Amino acid sequence: MGVVVRAILAQDPATQDRMRFYLVDERLEGDKNKDTLLHEGLTRPIAIPELGKPLSKEPFDLVFLGIGEDGHFASLFPGTYTEDGTEEQVLLVEDSPKPPARRTTLSYRGFRTLATSKVFLLFLGEGKREALKRVLSGEDPKTLPVSFFVTESFDSTIITDLKE
Questions:
Q1: What predicted TM-score, i.e. pTM, was given to this entire model?
Q2: Strand 155-160 and strand 118-123: pairing?
Q3: Which end of the chain is more exposed for a tag (fewer CB within 10 A), N or C?
């Protein structure tokens, strides 16, 4: 995701003023965690929705999601898929399988509210090759979370730097 953040920050101030940024997940380790998006330079004040409060009523035009080696996105890891959408739109994760354990994330229900958005799925780096193969083969989102964007009829595009 750092590459996307740096590209946004390279825009002129007038262009940046027309943009709204929302984090869909973040690691809750304070300023000691060098992997946070805030560490990448996205330091503007960002309103994070309270638990139970609906997301912005403004449509999201573009959504960029980095995909993990296990096919996770945001902090939604294998085994977390819910079809009924009864969870809150924003979740506190206390037991993430990938350190750090504490994170905040949009839930599947929260992502379903973005159904009219253009979603870019970023498979960047050699470590993402297997996840990319799995999503292209149609694997179930219960075992490969990124497949959610295929099974739920999103307008999604895969971006990768992988060569065949």
A1: 0.78
A2: parallel
A3: C
Residue 52 has pLDDT above 50, yes or no: yes
DSSP state of 59: P
Q: Which residue has the tokens 């993402």?
A: 128
Which sequence spans correspond to the domains of the chain?
2-160
Q: Under CATH, what is the fold of the domain 2-160?
A: Rossmann fold (3.40.50)
| Residues 67/122, Cβ–Cβ less than 8 Å | yes
Distance between terminal CA atoms of the chain?
22
pLDDT higher than threshold 60 for residue 152: yes
Q: Rounded distance, CA 74 to CA 106, Å? A: 7
Structure tokens at 88: 């809150």
Number of H helices, E strands in the chain: 5, 6
Cβ-proximal residues to 157 (8 Å cutoff; 6+ apart), any chain: 118, 119, 120, 121
Structure confidence at residue 74 (pLDDT)? 93
CA distance 164 to 103: 34
Total number of residues shown for the chain: 164
Whether residue 100 has a cis bond before it, omega within 30° of 0: yes
Chain centre to alpha carbon of residue 26:
9
